[in-house]
Amino acid sequence: MIKNVAVVGCGIGRTHIVSYAAHPDKFRVVAICDLNDERLASIGDEFGIERRTKDFGEVLRMEDVDIVDVCTPPAVHLEQILAALAAGKNVVCEKPLVGSVADVDKVIAAEKQSKGRVLPIFQYRYGNGIMKAKHLIDQGIAGKPYLASVEVFWKRTAKYYDNPWRGRWETELGGVLVTHAIHLHDLLTFIMGPVKSVFARATTRVNDIEVEDCVVGSLELQSGALASTAATLGSQDEISRLRFCFENVTFESCQKPYAPGDDPWKIIPASPEVQAKIDRAFEGWNFVPTRFEGLFAPYHEALVTGGELPITLADARRSLELLTAFYQSIETERPQTLQVGPDHPRYANWSLANKGADILRYAARA
Prior knowledge:
It is a single chain. The chain is built from 13 helices and 14 strands. It has two domains: 3-124 and 293-311, Rossmann fold (3-Layer(aba) Sandwich), CATH 3.40.50.720; 126-288 and 318-360, Dihydrodipicolinate Reductase, domain 2 (2-Layer Sandwich). The protein starts with a strand and ends with a helix. The protein has an eight-stranded mixed β-sheet with strand order 13-12-11-7-10-9-8-14. It is of the alpha/beta class. It has helices spanning 13-21, 37-47, 56-60, 77-86, 101-112, 128-138, 169-172, 176-179, 182-192, 272-281, 291-305, 313-332, 355-365, and strands at residues 3-8, 27-33, 51-53, 67-70, 90-93, 118-120, 145-155, 195-203, 214-221, 226-232, 234-246, 249-252, 266-269, 336-337.
């Protein structure tokens, strides 16, 4: 059963269109929406999409559209998600899903009242390397988790921020934590399990922007395992690297900055006996495609069968709880737990636009 898609926002949305096209028996992009006339024409012509509009409301009125794929700037996600759910559409939405834990709770409530469902985008979970690691963990072969390290060493220059919404608390909702490291922090929890608490420091040193572009964090996971994370937008050699140490196996990702889930991953057993278990676990293994292409296949299956989505709003909430704890720790200079509810001081807004921004500027001068 082919599902019709309307992609809203043709920047990163182009990548989504390419990935839907990789599954022609599952999806058809029938409409695109963007405020930029030139981009709307360019993407429409490139992919032969005839329906083109600058009106989001018009998209919602298209009766044959099954999925509204939201690829717009973060500050407008909540409004568009809620409107699409109210129109009975399924929703795919780029990260960050919304701008606070309070907002994701609104989406969770709205989804319960809609015939549509929301797929938050965490495409980095998909790739043959990380899925093989996940398989061994789920099979119980890896054993007890010990420690993890996460490195997001990317590069963004002033040209990247020559854009009216990037680099600002009000419109981008944060810096390297929100727009970049959010991917690998999701992979950390995907592999190692939920985070219990975080202690973090951040600064703005690379570009003249409001938000943070360098951050380090020390995390305790609910399992008792520990993790360290470091992220910057000032690395001349871009890499993403994850290392997970378990009782019986150590995993290390490839270093591709924008496809860390892909092969090759190092899978290092503690003994020949563990290696034999690993070999048996991969008998008949089916290759997992990378990123959006890998994600959209199980997404379609879930839509057709009514099964659980491959990434859920609960996953998104945990991600936004972690962001909230990061920013609370940066401001208070103390460890913070991830129990973020209505009584939490940053439940409705994690932004450091006021006091926190002064902290970032002070650190940058040091």
